[in-house]
Here is the input.
Amino acid sequence: MSSLLDVRNLKIYYKTPVGYVKAVDNVSFKVEKGEVFGVAGESGCGKSTLVHSLILRKPPMVHMGGQAVFKGRDLMQLSKEEERRIKYTELSIIPQYAMNALNPTKKIKDIVWDIAREHGYEDRNEVEKLLRERLAMVKLSEKVADMYPVELSGGMRQRATMVVSTLMNPDLLIADEVTSALDVTTQRVVLELLNYFMEQDIVKSIIFVTHDLALLDKIADRFMVMYAGKVVEMGPTEELINEPSHPYTTMLVESLPKIGVRYRETKLKGIPGYPISLLNPPKGCRFYTRCPYAMEHCPKVEPSLVEIEEGHVVACHLYGGESNE
Amino acid sequence: MGFKKYLARKTGVYLITFLFAVTLNWLRPRLMPGNPIEAMLSSNLGLAPGEKEVLMKYYSQLYGLDKPLWEQFVNFWVSLFHGNLGYSILYKAPVTDLIKHALPYDVVILLPAIALSWLVGNWLGAIAGKNKRYDRYTMPLFYFLASMPYFWFAMLLVYFVGVRAGWLPYQGAYAPDLIPSFSGDFIASFLKHWILPFLSLFIVMIGSWAIGMRNMIIYELEADYVRYLEALGGSEKLLTKHAYRNAILPQVTGLALQLGLMVAGAIATEIVFNYPGIGILIMNAALSQDYFLLQGAFLMVVISVLAANFIIDLIYAFIDPRVRTSYTEG
Here is the structure.
């Protein structure tokens, strides 16, 4: 059975006056039907670029190679019109700015109808009826459909946007840092809703992008960790959280705050140093500059992804993978 | 949706503003140094010293200027409510008549100039905001237009189109040998005289509308809600529609203010083209300290600016839900 989304050796660069910034460099992964796939990494690691390249690729973002096969079609090769058509109905997104994603001067039902009409929907009443049902599902009043986004609270707008994004039952939903600007109560609501959408078969699969491993632990079936435009480790959530292999993943897991430990007694562990520039990344391992286990050949040879257990891959010389690309 | 409350509060605010503005308008000419009666009499040469005193007293009484300031103030409000704006010292005619005769000339020039430049400017600005290549060439032009003084461009038109080419008349509102009427001759002459002053305002105004619209469109097209629509597969037409709807809102305010200021005339333009509008009236009134004409003309300005603002406040409550929400909640 083929995967819902099969990304192979995808390269997405940013064109700048001083050269290409290699934000996503040779990334491959698959998203299966019915799973929540997580993408983790710190700011600037390319995780947002990766998911945006699937749904909103525009200058200065440039596709420099690789494929992203979604339901048998390569997203990178679609014409503008084809791309426009599969968005929303098959491939949708909840953006990072979900609270401000709705035009403040349009009623929510009008916004929905404007987009639905452009995807071939003809019966306005039917679309509105669906909208009201879904609003009720997420415990918003049906009347929200007739309101302007400014009349809603931030949390309500967040939920309304989630309803709008998933209204057409997309096969794949991209949740891009949806929780990063939220307080923990709203974070929980968002996670519960995403889970609910999966249960109700409103969405088939989710790509959940975050910098917060604790959240991935709660929602993702599998996830991958990105560093400086590369995948460093990918595998089932439990394995990655409990027995991380790559030094970077290990340090990320260790940096999570633990209950019962006072900051005064044990300082939070961070990862010293800063990510490298992606303008001219070094030939070897990109984590070399911050890695406590760095070896002599790390800066010279790029580690390739090695399968250490079934479905668990890691790119680090500690686990082999001598080949250089 | 406490719209009534919103309306009541707005009305109250505007009423107070009106009282203050009108009082200041009444007071201001009286604070100017000099005496209008003296200015008027000084033009009548050959008066014996005694005669001047008598005339001064007579005219002061006639215009009610011999009374204490507070009494003048009360009289002013009383006659205002009778629709009486006083009698012009300079033109020796009722102020209401003078304004009534001058205002149409301003309206026929300014109303189309403002409205059409608003439409054209917004249209050009929206294109510039969306298309970078076009923007590169048109923006300098817009800035050039916007920073050009009205009178300067008017003088260029007069010189090149009127004097050098001789294509169009450039003095007055109609040929001097005609009397205003609805005859074909007069209308033809009026239209010919109308073109240059209209163009001088219309073309210059396009610049600032276009700049405003261009900046708003760029800002709105970058807004989160537009990116979201795009991510959900909205067509470019839809994105533009949504952005345009929000970008036009501040422009509506600008339009209303401009229309409100219309009754002040366009002093520079009227002087260049010797056009008999309110602008010239105000200038002459100021030069000769014509209290009544000045306060009458300014009163018109105050009323129409306030009315324009009031109407805009009401319209805004309908076209922008953000305004409605903030006012009805707060």
